[in-house]
Amino acid sequence: GFDDVVAAGDDKTPAVPRKASNLLPRVGTGIALVAAFLLSLLWQSAITVLAIAAFVVAAGEFYSALMHRRFKPMSIFGFVGIIAAGLGSVVWGVVAIPITFGLMATVLLLYGAVSQRRTGAVSGFALTLLVAGWIGGFGSFAFPIIAAEEYQVLVLTVVAIVALVDIAAYFVGSSIGRRPFAPTISPKKTIEGFVGGTFMAFLGGATASFFVESIDLPTGLVLGAAVAVFAPLGDLAVSVEKRSLDIKDMGSILPGHGGLLDRIDAISAAEPAAWAVFVWAGLL
User: Fold this and answer.
1) Cα separation of 140 and 189, whole Å?
2) Residue 126: which residues within 8 A CB-CB, separation 6 or more?
3) How far apart are CA 8 and CA 188, in angstroms?
4) What is the dihedral sign for C-alpha 71, 74, 79, 84?
5) 83-89 contacts: CB < 8 A, separation 24 or more?
């Protein structure tokens, strides 16, 4: 959940230190999130429920932000679609994801045909599918990993590499970052931060191959490369939406961190890539 900081532009501009009043709740919330995640790893059903709940809450934040900008998504259909995609992928695998959202699109069209709603019907239909497919569709690739026999080490490996990418990007970007990575989308992200995050992703993948028996070195390196690419893309995608909606955070449910979607954007985007790597390696 870190954002790397760029010093591009006027090098004489003094850095503004983070206020202690914001740092304490930020650290406390971070510890609580890590503790909840680690405890949920003890039971497959617990982490499954936690993941589905997180996707529903994150989608709710996105739908709420859209409604505050006078869009009219049909959020109830989105929530049902996310839950159905998650549970379906637990039982039948990832094939359930496109089937679920295909059925969801059909139901939305039927609803539009019989409903009296006319204003904003097209945008509401599109945004409902966008949010549900983005958060629930990408996120549901996590459930076949959770269903694996070695789910604890596989899930922990993916989350740890994503965290390493974020942390390295933050510290490298804040210390030597000069060139913006995506200046019109997120000016505080730097090329140097991205390179630092990529290096740590490879290092994290290689390290996992020494501690996790089922992950060999090629698999660890390919997993690191996949996370290094897709995790930042997930972060940037949410940044694009926040800029278009003119908001700083998607929500405020997490003290010091903003919304839940702001915390799981990178992990959600990395899940399909991680699933593909594990399937390629014969681990799923």
Assistant:
1) 28
2) none
3) 9
4) negative
5) 83/52, 83/56, 83/136, 85/132, 85/136, 85/137, 85/140, 86/48, 86/51, 86/52, 86/55, 86/136, 86/139, 86/140, 86/143, 87/52, 88/140, 89/140, 89/141, 89/143, 89/144
Report strand pairing: 180-182 vs 186-190: antiparallel
The rounded distance, in Å, linking the Cα atoms of 190 and 174 is: 9
Report pLDDT digits (tens) over 244-265: 888 887 877 776 667 888 889 8
Rounded Cα gap, residues 127 and 148, in angstroms: 33
What would the pLDDT profile of 1-25 be if each residue is shown by its tens digit? 444 433 333 444 444 444 445 667 7
- Whether this prediction's pTM lies above 0.70 is answered by yes
- Is 14 buried (19+), middle (13-18) or exposed (0-12) by CB count in 10 A? exposed
User: What per-residue confidence (pLDDT) applies to 13?
Assistant: 42
In what helix (H) or strand (E) does residue 181 lie, and over which residues does it extend? strand 180-182
Hey, is 190 helix, strand or coil? strand
**Residue numbers of the chain with a pLDDT score lower than 50:** 1-20
